[in-house]
Write a structure and sequence with these properties.
43% of the residues lie in helices and 17% in strands. It is α/β, with parallel strands linked by helices. A hairpin with a 4-residue loop joins strand 11 (280-285) and strand 12. The chain has a four-stranded parallel sheet with strand order 2-1-3-4. The longest helix is centred in the middle third of the chain and has 19 residues, at 187-205. Helix 12 (222-234) runs parallel beside helix 13 (251-261).
Length: 338
């Protein structure tokens, strides 16, 4: 939020546009819109770009933007408030180097996510680079099998449709690969993707030749990693349930929910209002991709509840959840203060 206030203070009389949804939290986005900052698509259509003038300010989000989009905005003469995360830019730097060296970028991430699309575009800046996005370990294993045994090229291309560069040929462009990642992925999973791909390349080309065929660079967002580490420690304690707070389309928050779901009952909520009562809570089901209601979610009697939140979740939303939990037990924060 600081950058939004700073941008409005610096340019009080200028039109300011958000490029995509920077904060994956509806309440925060509403605050930004109340400042008169207008949201346009992360990958704006021509009609959106045509409405811009050289006097307009465009805020680039923390996960960056695609190279082609930035060039279009530069051509309009817009001024930028660039909030691209340093960790994201570090990934871009490495991916661009892969491209220059004719090394295909294997990006561990979500092909549809704004950050991964921006990173993928960096692989094409030299004009000869290629990329392939893998999301799951199952997809990674499929790629490893193809590296080792070959296979049906058309099947491969159909399986990863929308997740590779134009002109990508698995028979040609998997000879030399470099791994990168979306910065909000689980570190342990990214490391496993790297390990499996390296093992496949060693088997294919031999340990003595691995440097010519495999590279790796791991950058997980610091705030994301801090929360993953903290949650890992929290889950070592005896908890009855976990509450995860954040936007349902937030990648780093969804991974926190995944970590919890593997251990105990976990409720992924946007805000305190989703806790209707001790008997009813509305929360996001990542498997069904929809908000659902769970009844009798809060056990009677003494209960130990873990709480975590996504990297962009404001502190006041976390405080609201704590207050609501206490209210459901007939308590207040003041009663607990010394």
């Amino acid at each position: 939020m600081i950058w939004a206030y700073a941008a409005r203070r610096a340019y009080p009389d200028r039109r300011i546009f958000l490029l995509g949804e920077i904060i994956h939290n509806p309440e925060v986005n509403d605050q930004i819109l109340r400042m008169g900052i207008v949201t346009i698509a992360g990958k704006p259509k021509d009609e959106e770009i045509n409405q811009l003038t050289p006097d307009d300010i465009v805020i680039i989000p923390a996960f960056g933007t695609e190279v082609s989009t930035r060039k279009k905005l530069e051509a309009k003469g817009c001024q930028f408030v660039d909030t691209t995360c340093g960790d994201v830019m570090s990934v871009w730097k490495r991916v661009r180097q892969y491209s220059k060296d004719s090394v295909t970028s294997i990006i561990h991430g979500k092909a549809w996510h704004e950050e991964t699309m921006a990173t993928s575009s960096q692989a094409r800046t030299s004009g000869k680079g290629h990329y392939l996005v893998v999301f799951t370990l199952a997809e990674t294993d499929y790629v490893c099998d193809y590296i080792l045994k070959g296979g049906n090229k058309q099947e491969f291309l159909e399986k990863f449709k929308g997740a590779y560069s134009e002109g990508f040929d698995p028979d040609v462009h998997l000879q030399a690969i470099g791994v990168a990642n979306q910065t909000t992925m689980l570190r342990g999973e990214t490391e496993e993707v790297q390990r499996r791909l390296k093992a496949a390349m060693v088997r294919r080309f031999g340990e003595s030749e691995i440097a010519s065929h495999f590279r790796f660079f791991d950058t997980i967002c610091g705030a994301t990693q801090d929360r993953q580490d903290a949650l890992e420690k929290l889950l070592r304690n005896p908890l009855e349930l976990l509450i995860v707070i954040g936007g349902y389309n937030s990648s780093n928050t969804s991974h926190l929910a995944e970590m919890g779901e593997s251990k105990l009952p976990t409720y992924f909520i946007k805000n305190a209002a989703k806790m209707i009562s001790e008997n009813s809570i509305f929360h996001y089901d990542q498997h069904k991709h929809e908000e659902i209601e769970t009844l009798n979610w809060l056990p009677k009697g003494h209960v130990t509840v873990g709480i975590t939140a996504g990297a962009s979740c404001p502190n006041n939303l976390i405080e609201d959840v704590i207050r609501r939990l206490l209210e459901l037990r007939g308590l207040s924060v003041q009663q607990l203060l010394p």
